[in-house]
Amino acid sequence: MKVLFLNPCLRPEAPHRYLPVGLGYVITVAAQKGIDFDLLDMDINVLSDQAVESHLRKHRYDVIAIGAIVTHYKWIRRFLHKAREIQPDCQLIVGNSVGSSISEVLFQHTPVDVVILGEADLTFVDVVKTLEAGKPLGTLVEPLEKVSHTNGDLPSSWRGEGIKGIVFRDQQGRIIHNGLRPGIKNIDDLPFPDWDLFDVEQYFKVQKGMAHDTTFYPADQARVMPVNTARGCVFKCTFCHHVFWHDPYRHRSPESVVAEIKRNKNKYGANYIDFWDELSFYKMKPAERFVDVLLEADLGVHWTAAVRADLFGKKEVPYADRRRVVEKFIKAGAIALGYSLESGSDEILNDMNKHMKAEHFAEQARLFSDVGLINNTSLVLGYPRETKQTIAETMQMCEQAGVYPSVGFLLPLPETGMWQHAIENGHIDDVEQFLANMTERQDIVLNMTKMSNETLMAEVKHWLNRLNRSFGNHLDEERLIKTQGYAEHNRHQDEHQHEDVQLPPMNMA
């Protein structure tokens, strides 16, 4: 059985490309299990749709596997129809959040055969091996029972039993839902992504722009690679959806993460690691244990990570204790930490289900500035109670912290609290049409505030212009929101980086 994995190029105009961690895990497991596959990496090669179609006409496959985030449903829909036209007997499998959150939409409006729900590492292999053996993926459960969903009035699937973690179309055209597959308990058991399957050197070339200058080399000498430390998130913010939505938050052991970093350094020359997680650290004790193991390994790499805004921002924890751990982060190679303010309004933060206060962001930003650690943050503007005043509160916090934010507008995503709010309040009446018209978080796709689109956008740009001038970023108006990477628009923080705490020499042995 021959499989084609397709890594789509969803933002061809973007200046950076990222090694696809999720796909990297899936194809590594597939390779280890003896599955015969090709990989068509549209992203790093910036392949056009026509180039992909030409490839499909020249090569025959039994299975075509593709995934994306749900905001790219329209492209996925178009591709699935074209793939079915060119290879009518091929099994079409869709994963990632575009599969997990809108399977009802896919089965109603595309010729998809199988949707993988959540983690695909093991499920994909089970599906391919079962298809190869000519066996059914599952059967209907009697008595017949519909599976509830949150995607409007689209037809439901029927409850089935068989391979867990999939929804599939059987030979009679019925849509059968086999239920969720439990998340992998010990993610240390998964193999490290085999980046030999990708054009690593090309990714290195385009990922330099993601790096900050370090104490020992300029950003253009960085060899950036992603590493996952965890899967999922502790919290369920009402604007967020990710592929591990139904799974528990699971951390890899520090020893496993360090072993992968060492492999990446020795094999690929990686010297700058992006911990590529929804959330890497949210409690001080586990975070300190991790950096202790990293310090002991003495790998001499620099790194960035996503943390909670209250990780070091709770004033009830003595400042000296928080600073001590942050200084360990820096000694272990931390260059920048990203943590989301999202809003300077505690009422909106409550609507987001963030379980934190805006003051935590301010306190953490102050501590990071004290020790010379670069701050990165993101905003989600446009919650129903958003006003000019709440926007001002949010932007003023960024200004006081010296952080230029990555700005996004509220984009209701399937299965989230704000998706339910939008549907229940009549903001979305045609789910498929809404998904097909959806663009990116930097656009006002659905405005549920009492402000007009023009007023909302003008107010945001007014404040971003102010921050832009204050920080000397010299961004033109088109790039105030589409800022093309933290490293560039927060470059003003570099000159203060690590003034108090020095990193160890880079050990490239």
What does this structure look like?
The chain is of the alpha/beta class and 509 residues long. It contains 18 helices and 18 strands. It has a nine-stranded mixed beta sheet, with helices on both faces. Strands 10-13-14-15-16 form a five-stranded parallel beta sheet. α10 links the parallel β13 and β14. α14 runs parallel beside α17. The protein starts with a strand and ends in a 20-residue tail after the last helix. The C terminus is likely disordered.
How would the global form be characterised? globular
* Average pLDDT, all residues: 92
What is the number of helices?
18
The major beta sheet can be summarized as: 9 strands, mixed
Q: In total, how many beta strands? A: 18
Share of helical residues: 25-40%
Q: Taking Cα atoms only, what radius of gyration do you get, to the nearest Å?
A: 23 Å
Low-confidence stretches: 498-509
- Proportion of strand residues: 5-15%
The N- and C-terminal alpha carbons lie at a distance of 42 Å
Class per helix and strand makeup: alpha/beta
Strand order of the largest sheet: 2-1-3-4-5-8-9-7-6
Which terms summarize this structure?
single chain; 509 residues; alpha/beta; nine-stranded mixed sheet; five-stranded parallel sheet; 18 helices; 18 strands; globular
Provide the fold topology.
Layout: E1 2-7, H1 21-32, E2 36-41, H2 42-45, H3 49-58, E3 63-67, H4 73-86, E4 91-95, H5 96-100, H6 103-109, E5 114-116, H7 121-132, E6 138-140, E7 158-162, E8 166-169, E9 175-177, H8 200-207, E10 224-227, E11 230-231, E12 250-251, H9 254-268, E13 272-275, H10 284-297, E14 302-306, H11 319-331, E15 334-338, H12 346-351, H13 358-371, E16 374-376, E17 378-381, H14 388-401, E18 406-409, H15 417-424, H16 431-437, H17 453-471, H18 486-489
Parallel strand pairs: 1-2, 1-3, 3-4, 4-5, 7-9, 10-13, 13-14, 14-15, 15-16, 17-18
Antiparallel strand pairs: 5-8, 6-7, 8-9, 11-12
Helix pairs in contact: 1-7, 3-4, 10-11, 13-14, 14-17
